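Handout, section B. The chain below has 213 residues.
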Amino acid sequence: AEAFASLMQAGLVFASAALIAREAIADILDPHPLQNEGWAIAVMVVSTGLTAFLVTAQTRILRRTSSVAVSGDRAHYASDLASNVVALVGIAGSAWLGLSNLDAAAALVVTGLLLWGAISVFRQASDQLMDRELPDEDRARIVRLAAADPRVSDVHQLRTRASGPYVHVQMHIDLDPDLTLEAAHEVVVAAEKRILEALPAADIIIPADPHGR
């Protein structure tokens, strides 16, 4: 559900970028002076401050939850923050320097920033929906943690994917076939705990195979 929400968010940002680009191009082709530029600057200053506060709050939440929906929203508002600064420069330049096309040029830069943010959100959401594996460095760390016990002779068939704030990990480990079921269970639980220290939101499944058989 979080990944679907992020995809919808990316679509809305794409639509916003297209509308802004249309207005900017129309203004470049038929320039006109800004009206009530003082109010426009005041609104952008307030908007920039509130957006900065929101991005800061979302960053704190992300450290605790790793939510892809919040991550997508944060990417959106981070683009907005940069866009607000560009828009403020464009409005101020048009008002104080008399450069009528500067506002429209700033709008085109805003379009590019929004598109960049939307692509980032879309990529992250699609990775989850398509069950993309975790990055290679994370997979290698999982294998190292699982194999840290000398009783584990091999780790294979590793499968990983992210779903919202959770990480799903499956793998097989080879153990001495003469171990008791209780001893094998202890090895598996210890491996799970080592991985959970690195990935606290992980859901882990580790079947044990008899080595050499």
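Note. The mean pLDDT is 86. Compare this with the example in section A.
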